[in-house]
Design goal:
The protein is α+β, with helices and mostly antiparallel strands. The chain has 15 helices and 16 strands. Helix 1 runs antiparallel to helix 5 and helix 5 runs parallel beside helix 9. It starts with 17 loop residues before the first helix and ends with a helix.
Protein backbone atom coordinates (compact mmCIF):
# COMPACT_ATOMS: atom_id res chain seq x y z
CA UNK A 1 0.00 0.00 0.00
CA UNK A 2 1.41 3.43 -0.85
CA UNK A 3 1.87 5.99 1.91
CA UNK A 4 3.54 9.39 2.01
CA UNK A 5 6.35 8.16 4.25
CA UNK A 6 8.61 5.18 4.27
CA UNK A 7 11.09 4.10 6.91
CA UNK A 8 14.76 5.03 6.62
CA UNK A 9 17.16 2.68 4.85
CA UNK A 10 18.84 0.18 7.15
CA UNK A 11 16.09 0.47 9.79
CA UNK A 12 13.32 -2.02 10.51
CA UNK A 13 9.75 -2.05 11.76
CA UNK A 14 9.06 -5.04 13.97
CA UNK A 15 5.36 -5.79 13.86
CA UNK A 16 3.38 -8.54 15.62
CA UNK A 17 3.80 -11.47 15.90
CA UNK A 18 7.53 -10.74 15.35
CA UNK A 19 7.44 -8.07 18.07
CA UNK A 20 6.17 -10.66 20.55
CA UNK A 21 8.96 -12.99 19.48
CA UNK A 22 11.52 -10.24 20.13
CA UNK A 23 10.09 -9.69 23.59
CA UNK A 24 10.42 -13.40 24.39
CA UNK A 25 14.04 -13.47 23.23
CA UNK A 26 14.74 -10.32 25.24
CA UNK A 27 13.13 -11.82 28.32
CA UNK A 28 15.21 -15.03 28.06
CA UNK A 29 18.37 -12.91 27.92
CA UNK A 30 17.36 -10.62 30.78
CA UNK A 31 16.32 -13.44 33.09
CA UNK A 32 19.47 -15.42 32.35
CA UNK A 33 21.61 -12.38 33.24
CA UNK A 34 19.51 -11.70 36.33
CA UNK A 35 20.19 -15.28 37.43
CA UNK A 36 23.93 -14.54 37.15
CA UNK A 37 23.52 -11.46 39.38
CA UNK A 38 23.45 -8.72 36.72
CA UNK A 39 21.35 -5.56 37.20
CA UNK A 40 19.71 -3.51 34.49
CA UNK A 41 21.04 -0.11 33.41
CA UNK A 42 19.30 2.37 31.08
CA UNK A 43 21.30 5.22 29.55
CA UNK A 44 20.49 7.97 27.01
CA UNK A 45 20.65 7.22 23.30
CA UNK A 46 22.38 10.55 22.71
CA UNK A 47 25.85 11.41 24.06
CA UNK A 48 28.49 14.06 23.38
CA UNK A 49 30.35 13.03 20.23
CA UNK A 50 33.71 13.24 21.94
CA UNK A 51 32.84 10.31 24.20
CA UNK A 52 32.74 8.00 21.17
CA UNK A 53 35.65 9.71 19.36
CA UNK A 54 37.85 9.07 22.36
CA UNK A 55 36.64 5.58 23.27
CA UNK A 56 36.06 3.78 19.96
CA UNK A 57 39.14 5.57 18.62
CA UNK A 58 39.64 8.24 15.95
CA UNK A 59 40.88 5.68 13.45
CA UNK A 60 38.04 3.17 13.92
CA UNK A 61 35.48 2.70 11.12
CA UNK A 62 32.77 3.67 13.59
CA UNK A 63 34.24 7.12 14.22
CA UNK A 64 35.60 7.62 10.72
CA UNK A 65 32.41 6.96 8.80
CA UNK A 66 29.54 5.41 10.71
CA UNK A 67 28.34 7.80 13.40
CA UNK A 68 25.03 9.65 13.28
CA UNK A 69 26.43 12.97 14.44
CA UNK A 70 24.72 16.36 14.44
CA UNK A 71 24.70 19.65 16.29
CA UNK A 72 21.99 20.22 18.85
CA UNK A 73 20.21 23.58 19.21
CA UNK A 74 23.09 24.91 21.34
CA UNK A 75 25.61 23.98 18.67
CA UNK A 76 27.11 21.06 20.63
CA UNK A 77 28.14 18.01 18.66
CA UNK A 78 26.08 15.02 19.77
CA UNK A 79 25.91 11.44 18.46
CA UNK A 80 23.37 8.62 18.51
CA UNK A 81 25.18 5.86 20.37
CA UNK A 82 26.95 3.44 18.01
CA UNK A 83 27.44 1.10 21.01
CA UNK A 84 26.75 1.09 24.75
CA UNK A 85 30.07 0.46 26.47
CA UNK A 86 31.37 4.05 26.49
CA UNK A 87 27.99 5.42 27.68
CA UNK A 88 27.65 2.79 30.39
CA UNK A 89 31.16 3.56 31.63
CA UNK A 90 30.37 7.31 31.60
CA UNK A 91 27.22 6.68 33.65
CA UNK A 92 29.04 4.48 36.16
CA UNK A 93 31.95 6.92 36.61
CA UNK A 94 29.56 9.89 36.94
CA UNK A 95 27.68 8.11 39.73
CA UNK A 96 30.69 6.58 41.54
CA UNK A 97 30.71 7.21 45.26
CA UNK A 98 32.18 5.72 48.39
CA UNK A 99 29.08 3.53 48.57
CA UNK A 100 29.57 1.89 45.16
CA UNK A 101 29.93 -1.85 45.63
CA UNK A 102 32.22 -3.73 43.25
CA UNK A 103 32.08 -5.71 41.11
CA UNK A 104 29.27 -3.87 39.37
CA UNK A 105 27.57 -6.37 37.08
CA UNK A 106 25.39 -4.56 34.56
CA UNK A 107 23.19 -5.55 31.62
CA UNK A 108 21.41 -3.42 29.00
CA UNK A 109 19.17 -3.72 25.98
CA UNK A 110 18.45 -1.10 23.34
CA UNK A 111 19.08 0.37 19.91
CA UNK A 112 22.43 1.50 18.48
CA UNK A 113 23.10 3.47 15.30
CA UNK A 114 25.86 2.98 12.74
CA UNK A 115 25.70 4.38 9.22
CA UNK A 116 26.84 1.15 7.53
CA UNK A 117 26.02 -0.32 4.14
CA UNK A 118 22.84 -2.30 4.92
CA UNK A 119 23.03 -6.03 4.20
CA UNK A 120 21.91 -9.26 5.84
CA UNK A 121 22.73 -9.00 9.54
CA UNK A 122 23.96 -5.40 9.19
CA UNK A 123 21.61 -2.50 9.84
CA UNK A 124 21.85 1.19 10.54
CA UNK A 125 19.60 0.83 13.56
CA UNK A 126 20.21 -2.42 15.41
CA UNK A 127 19.62 -3.66 18.94
CA UNK A 128 22.21 -4.85 21.39
CA UNK A 129 21.89 -6.83 24.57
CA UNK A 130 25.07 -6.30 26.54
CA UNK A 131 26.86 -7.18 29.75
CA UNK A 132 29.58 -5.24 31.54
CA UNK A 133 31.49 -5.99 34.76
CA UNK A 134 33.28 -3.06 36.41
CA UNK A 135 35.86 -3.32 39.15
CA UNK A 136 37.04 -6.87 38.52
CA UNK A 137 40.57 -7.19 37.20
CA UNK A 138 40.69 -10.97 37.69
CA UNK A 139 40.12 -12.95 34.54
CA UNK A 140 37.33 -14.71 36.43
CA UNK A 141 35.26 -11.64 35.47
CA UNK A 142 35.98 -12.39 31.78
CA UNK A 143 35.02 -16.00 32.44
CA UNK A 144 31.75 -14.87 34.03
CA UNK A 145 30.89 -12.86 30.88
CA UNK A 146 31.69 -15.79 28.59
CA UNK A 147 29.86 -18.31 30.79
CA UNK A 148 26.75 -16.14 30.72
CA UNK A 149 26.92 -15.41 26.97
CA UNK A 150 27.34 -19.15 26.40
CA UNK A 151 24.38 -19.92 28.69
CA UNK A 152 22.16 -17.37 26.90
CA UNK A 153 22.87 -18.94 23.51
CA UNK A 154 22.13 -22.42 24.91
CA UNK A 155 18.90 -21.23 26.57
CA UNK A 156 17.80 -19.85 23.23
CA UNK A 157 18.49 -23.22 21.64
CA UNK A 158 21.63 -22.19 19.74
CA UNK A 159 24.45 -24.66 20.32
CA UNK A 160 26.53 -24.73 17.14
CA UNK A 161 28.58 -21.59 17.73
CA UNK A 162 32.32 -21.11 17.73
CA UNK A 163 33.97 -19.13 20.48
CA UNK A 164 37.17 -17.43 19.32
CA UNK A 165 39.54 -15.78 21.77
CA UNK A 166 42.74 -13.78 21.49
CA UNK A 167 45.23 -12.05 23.77
CA UNK A 168 46.08 -8.59 22.44
CA UNK A 169 48.31 -7.42 25.28
CA UNK A 170 48.27 -4.80 27.99
CA UNK A 171 49.09 -1.10 27.55
CA UNK A 172 52.84 -1.88 27.72
CA UNK A 173 53.26 -4.86 25.41
CA UNK A 174 50.57 -3.68 23.02
CA UNK A 175 52.84 -0.82 22.00
CA UNK A 176 55.64 -3.27 21.16
CA UNK A 177 53.23 -5.19 18.93
CA UNK A 178 51.94 -2.00 17.32
CA UNK A 179 55.52 -0.96 16.48
CA UNK A 180 56.18 -4.42 15.07
CA UNK A 181 53.20 -4.48 12.72
CA UNK A 182 53.74 -0.84 11.76
CA UNK A 183 57.19 -1.74 10.52
CA UNK A 184 55.88 -4.97 8.90
CA UNK A 185 53.12 -3.16 6.99
CA UNK A 186 55.52 -0.28 6.32
CA UNK A 187 57.77 -2.69 4.42
CA UNK A 188 54.72 -3.63 2.32
CA UNK A 189 53.21 -0.17 1.99
CA UNK A 190 53.40 -0.12 -1.83
CA UNK A 191 50.97 -3.03 -2.02
CA UNK A 192 48.54 -1.65 0.57
CA UNK A 193 45.43 0.30 -0.45
CA UNK A 194 45.31 4.06 0.16
CA UNK A 195 43.14 3.72 3.29
CA UNK A 196 45.56 1.21 4.80
CA UNK A 197 48.50 3.47 4.00
CA UNK A 198 46.78 6.09 6.14
CA UNK A 199 46.08 3.46 8.80
CA UNK A 200 49.83 2.85 9.05
CA UNK A 201 50.24 6.11 10.90
CA UNK A 202 46.86 6.21 12.72
CA UNK A 203 46.25 2.60 13.80
CA UNK A 204 47.89 -0.25 11.87
CA UNK A 205 45.65 -2.80 13.66
CA UNK A 206 42.76 -1.59 11.47
CA UNK A 207 44.59 -3.01 8.41
CA UNK A 208 43.42 -6.46 9.57
CA UNK A 209 39.80 -5.35 8.98
CA UNK A 210 40.45 -4.26 5.36
CA UNK A 211 38.38 -6.10 2.72
CA UNK A 212 40.84 -5.31 -0.11
CA UNK A 213 42.32 -8.59 -1.46
CA UNK A 214 45.92 -7.29 -1.59
CA UNK A 215 45.73 -6.00 1.99
CA UNK A 216 44.16 -9.28 3.13
CA UNK A 217 46.99 -11.23 1.52
CA UNK A 218 49.68 -9.12 3.19
CA UNK A 219 47.89 -9.39 6.54
CA UNK A 220 48.16 -13.18 6.38
CA UNK A 221 51.92 -12.96 6.95
CA UNK A 222 51.79 -10.22 9.58
CA UNK A 223 53.20 -10.93 13.06
CA UNK A 224 50.77 -12.44 15.59
CA UNK A 225 49.80 -10.55 18.75
CA UNK A 226 50.37 -13.58 20.90
CA UNK A 227 54.10 -13.67 20.05
CA UNK A 228 54.64 -10.17 21.42
CA UNK A 229 52.68 -10.08 24.66
CA UNK A 230 54.58 -9.79 27.95
CA UNK A 231 55.08 -12.63 30.43
CA UNK A 232 52.32 -11.34 32.67
CA UNK A 233 49.80 -11.25 29.78
CA UNK A 234 50.93 -14.72 28.65
CA UNK A 235 50.39 -16.18 32.13
CA UNK A 236 46.97 -14.53 32.38
CA UNK A 237 45.97 -15.94 29.01
CA UNK A 238 47.13 -19.43 29.98
CA UNK A 239 45.13 -19.29 33.23
CA UNK A 240 42.12 -18.04 31.33
CA UNK A 241 42.30 -20.98 28.96
CA UNK A 242 42.37 -23.29 31.99
CA UNK A 243 39.23 -21.59 33.33
CA UNK A 244 37.50 -22.21 30.01
CA UNK A 245 38.63 -25.85 29.97
CA UNK A 246 37.38 -26.53 33.48
CA UNK A 247 34.05 -24.91 32.57
CA UNK A 248 33.75 -27.18 29.51
CA UNK A 249 33.67 -24.24 27.14
CA UNK A 250 35.36 -25.04 23.86
CA UNK A 251 37.18 -22.31 21.98
CA UNK A 252 39.62 -21.58 19.20
CA UNK A 253 42.47 -19.13 19.43
CA UNK A 254 42.31 -16.58 16.63
CA UNK A 255 45.52 -14.57 16.74
CA UNK A 256 44.20 -12.23 14.04
CA UNK A 257 41.20 -11.03 16.01
CA UNK A 258 41.68 -7.38 17.01
CA UNK A 259 38.02 -6.17 17.12
CA UNK A 260 36.80 -2.93 15.61
CA UNK A 261 37.01 -0.73 18.70
CA UNK A 262 40.25 0.70 20.05
CA UNK A 263 39.56 0.41 23.77
CA UNK A 264 40.32 -3.29 24.20
CA UNK A 265 43.33 -4.64 26.08
CA UNK A 266 44.36 -8.17 27.10
CA UNK A 267 41.49 -10.48 26.17
CA UNK A 268 39.10 -10.21 23.22
CA UNK A 269 36.55 -12.78 22.09
CA UNK A 270 33.73 -13.39 19.63
CA UNK A 271 30.93 -15.94 19.37
CA UNK A 272 30.69 -16.78 15.68
CA UNK A 273 27.91 -18.54 13.78
CA UNK A 274 27.24 -19.57 10.24
CA UNK A 275 25.06 -16.98 8.56
CA UNK A 276 23.81 -17.92 5.10
CA UNK A 277 27.06 -19.80 4.58
CA UNK A 278 29.32 -17.05 5.95
CA UNK A 279 30.74 -16.73 9.47
CA UNK A 280 29.29 -13.77 11.36
CA UNK A 281 29.86 -12.52 14.89
CA UNK A 282 26.74 -12.70 16.99
CA UNK A 283 28.38 -11.52 20.21
CA UNK A 284 31.70 -9.78 20.71
CA UNK A 285 33.57 -8.32 23.60
CA UNK A 286 36.65 -8.20 25.73
CA UNK A 287 38.52 -6.41 28.47
CA UNK A 288 38.93 -2.62 28.47
CA UNK A 289 40.90 -1.83 31.62
CA UNK A 290 42.38 1.44 30.32
CA UNK A 291 39.23 3.12 29.02
CA UNK A 292 38.10 4.83 32.21
CA UNK A 293 41.51 6.44 32.82
CA UNK A 294 41.88 7.46 29.20
CA UNK A 295 38.61 9.39 29.53
CA UNK A 296 39.76 11.16 32.67
CA UNK A 297 38.15 8.72 35.13
CA UNK A 298 39.61 6.56 37.89
CA UNK A 299 41.48 3.33 37.36
CA UNK A 300 38.53 1.01 36.72
CA UNK A 301 39.16 -2.44 35.28
CA UNK A 302 36.28 -3.61 33.12
CA UNK A 303 35.18 -6.35 30.79
CA UNK A 304 32.03 -7.07 28.79
CA UNK A 305 30.33 -8.11 25.60
CA UNK A 306 27.30 -7.33 23.43
CA UNK A 307 24.96 -9.46 21.31
CA UNK A 308 23.45 -8.24 18.04
CA UNK A 309 19.74 -8.99 18.42
CA UNK A 310 18.77 -8.90 14.72
CA UNK A 311 21.42 -11.52 13.98
CA UNK A 312 20.24 -13.64 16.89
CA UNK A 313 16.60 -13.43 15.79
CA UNK A 314 17.46 -14.32 12.18
CA UNK A 315 19.34 -17.39 13.39
CA UNK A 316 16.41 -18.47 15.55
CA UNK A 317 14.12 -18.21 12.52
CA UNK A 318 16.60 -19.94 10.19
CA UNK A 319 16.94 -22.78 12.65
CA UNK A 320 13.18 -22.84 13.14
CA UNK A 321 13.65 -22.48 16.88
CA UNK A 322 10.64 -21.06 18.79
CA UNK A 323 8.79 -20.89 15.48
CA UNK A 324 5.21 -20.53 16.58
CA UNK A 325 5.54 -17.84 19.17
CA UNK A 326 2.25 -16.00 19.17
CA UNK A 327 0.33 -13.80 21.45
CA UNK A 328 -1.09 -16.94 23.10
CA UNK A 329 -4.25 -16.06 24.99
CA UNK A 330 -6.35 -18.34 27.19
CA UNK A 331 -9.95 -17.46 26.44
CA UNK A 332 -11.62 -15.32 23.80
CA UNK A 333 -15.17 -14.24 24.61
CA UNK A 334 -17.14 -14.03 21.37
CA UNK A 335 -20.42 -12.12 21.43
CA UNK A 336 -23.25 -11.78 18.97
CA UNK A 337 -25.36 -8.70 19.78
CA UNK A 338 -25.38 -5.54 21.91
CA UNK A 339 -26.74 -7.33 25.03
CA UNK A 340 -24.09 -10.07 24.87
CA UNK A 341 -21.40 -7.43 24.35
CA UNK A 342 -22.19 -5.94 27.77
CA UNK A 343 -21.94 -9.40 29.34
CA UNK A 344 -18.65 -10.03 27.48
CA UNK A 345 -17.16 -6.83 28.94
CA UNK A 346 -18.20 -7.89 32.46
CA UNK A 347 -16.81 -11.43 32.01
CA UNK A 348 -13.48 -10.30 30.51
CA UNK A 349 -12.97 -7.76 33.33
CA UNK A 350 -13.55 -10.52 35.91
CA UNK A 351 -11.32 -13.01 34.05
CA UNK A 352 -8.52 -10.44 33.83
CA UNK A 353 -8.82 -9.64 37.54
CA UNK A 354 -8.31 -13.37 38.17
CA UNK A 355 -5.15 -13.23 36.06
CA UNK A 356 -6.62 -15.10 33.07
CA UNK A 357 -5.50 -13.68 29.71
CA UNK A 358 -8.72 -12.98 27.83
CA UNK A 359 -10.07 -10.71 25.14
CA UNK A 360 -13.21 -9.84 23.19
CA UNK A 361 -14.21 -8.33 19.85
CA UNK A 362 -13.33 -4.65 19.41
CA UNK A 363 -14.19 -4.23 15.74
CA UNK A 364 -17.81 -5.49 15.40
CA UNK A 365 -17.03 -8.72 13.62
CA UNK A 366 -19.55 -11.46 12.94
CA UNK A 367 -19.34 -14.67 14.99
CA UNK A 368 -17.47 -16.69 12.33
CA UNK A 369 -14.87 -14.03 11.86
CA UNK A 370 -14.44 -13.70 15.67
CA UNK A 371 -13.77 -17.47 15.79
CA UNK A 372 -11.21 -17.18 12.99
CA UNK A 373 -9.49 -14.29 14.79
CA UNK A 374 -9.36 -16.21 18.09
CA UNK A 375 -7.86 -19.18 16.29
CA UNK A 376 -5.26 -17.06 14.52
CA UNK A 377 -4.23 -15.36 17.76
CA UNK A 378 -3.72 -18.74 19.41
CA UNK A 379 -6.56 -18.62 21.99
CA UNK A 380 -6.93 -21.97 23.74
CA UNK A 381 -10.65 -21.57 24.43
CA UNK A 382 -13.51 -19.59 22.93
CA UNK A 383 -16.65 -18.79 24.92
CA UNK A 384 -19.68 -17.75 22.85
CA UNK A 385 -22.44 -15.52 24.27
CA UNK A 386 -25.69 -14.87 22.40
CA UNK A 387 -29.44 -14.74 23.17
CA UNK A 388 -29.60 -18.53 23.60
CA UNK A 389 -26.91 -18.44 26.34
CA UNK A 390 -28.54 -15.44 28.01
CA UNK A 391 -31.94 -17.25 28.06
CA UNK A 392 -30.57 -20.58 29.28
CA UNK A 393 -28.00 -19.09 31.70
CA UNK A 394 -25.45 -21.59 30.37
CA UNK A 395 -22.37 -20.73 28.33
CA UNK A 396 -20.46 -23.18 26.10
CA UNK A 397 -16.67 -22.93 25.92
CA UNK A 398 -14.94 -24.56 22.98
CA UNK A 399 -11.52 -26.12 23.48
CA UNK A 400 -9.86 -25.01 20.23
CA UNK A 401 -7.47 -27.97 20.03
CA UNK A 402 -9.97 -30.80 20.69
CA UNK A 403 -13.19 -28.97 19.61
CA UNK A 404 -14.80 -30.29 22.82
CA UNK A 405 -17.44 -27.92 24.26
CA UNK A 406 -17.60 -27.51 28.04
CA UNK A 407 -20.61 -25.87 29.74
CA UNK A 408 -20.43 -23.26 32.53
CA UNK A 409 -23.01 -21.22 34.43
CA UNK A 410 -23.21 -17.74 32.91
CA UNK A 411 -23.84 -16.04 36.28
CA UNK A 412 -20.42 -16.86 37.75
CA UNK A 413 -18.54 -17.89 34.66
CA UNK A 414 -15.18 -16.28 35.52
CA UNK A 415 -14.87 -18.04 38.90
CA UNK A 416 -15.98 -21.42 37.49
CA UNK A 417 -13.66 -21.14 34.53
CA UNK A 418 -10.78 -20.23 36.86
CA UNK A 419 -11.47 -23.42 38.91
CA UNK A 420 -11.63 -25.43 35.70
CA UNK A 421 -8.20 -24.14 34.58
CA UNK A 422 -6.68 -24.92 37.95
CA UNK A 423 -7.94 -28.53 37.96
P1 LIG B 1 30.64 -4.77 18.45
O1 LIG B 1 31.39 -5.99 18.02
O2 LIG B 1 30.87 -3.53 17.71
O3 LIG B 1 30.98 -4.58 19.98
O4 LIG B 1 29.08 -5.06 18.45
C1 LIG B 1 28.54 -6.16 19.17
C2 LIG B 1 27.58 -6.94 18.29
O5 LIG B 1 26.59 -6.06 17.77
C3 LIG B 1 28.23 -7.56 17.06
O6 LIG B 1 28.86 -8.77 17.38
C4 LIG B 1 27.03 -7.75 16.16
O7 LIG B 1 26.34 -8.95 16.50
C5 LIG B 1 26.15 -6.55 16.51
N1 LIG B 1 26.29 -5.51 15.48
C6 LIG B 1 27.27 -4.60 15.33
N2 LIG B 1 27.04 -3.79 14.29
C7 LIG B 1 25.85 -4.18 13.76
C8 LIG B 1 25.04 -3.73 12.67
N3 LIG B 1 25.38 -2.70 11.91
N4 LIG B 1 23.86 -4.38 12.43
C9 LIG B 1 23.48 -5.43 13.18
N5 LIG B 1 24.20 -5.89 14.23
C10 LIG B 1 25.37 -5.28 14.52
C11 LIG B 1 30.46 -3.56 20.74
O8 LIG B 1 29.57 -2.85 20.39
C12 LIG B 1 31.07 -3.53 22.12
N6 LIG B 1 30.46 -2.39 22.83
C13 LIG B 1 30.83 -4.82 22.86
C14 LIG B 1 31.41 -4.80 24.23
C15 LIG B 1 30.73 -4.64 25.39
N7 LIG B 1 32.68 -4.90 24.54
C16 LIG B 1 32.84 -4.80 25.85
N8 LIG B 1 31.63 -4.63 26.37
Amino acid sequence: MSFLFNRLRGMQDILPPEGDFWRKVESVMLSCAEFYGFSFIRIPILEFTELFDRSAGDSSDIVQKEMYTFSDKSGRSVTLRPEFTAGVLRAVVNELSGNTVFPLKLMYFGPCYRYEKPQVGRYREFFQFGLEIFGGSSNLADLEIILLANQILLELGIGDFNLEINAIGCSDCRQIYLDEIRSFFGRNRDSLCETCNNRLSTNPLRIFDCKNDDCKKISENAPHTIDFICENCKTKFETFKKFLDISNISYDINTRMVRGLDYYTNLVFEFILDFDGKPLTICGGGRYDGLSKSLGGPDLPATGCAFGIERLIKLLHDKEICQNIQNNGIVYVACIDEESKILAVDIVCKLRSLGIKSDYDLVDRGLKSQMRYANKMGYKYVAVIGQEEINSGVIGVKDMSSSEVISFKLSNFAEEFDKFLKN
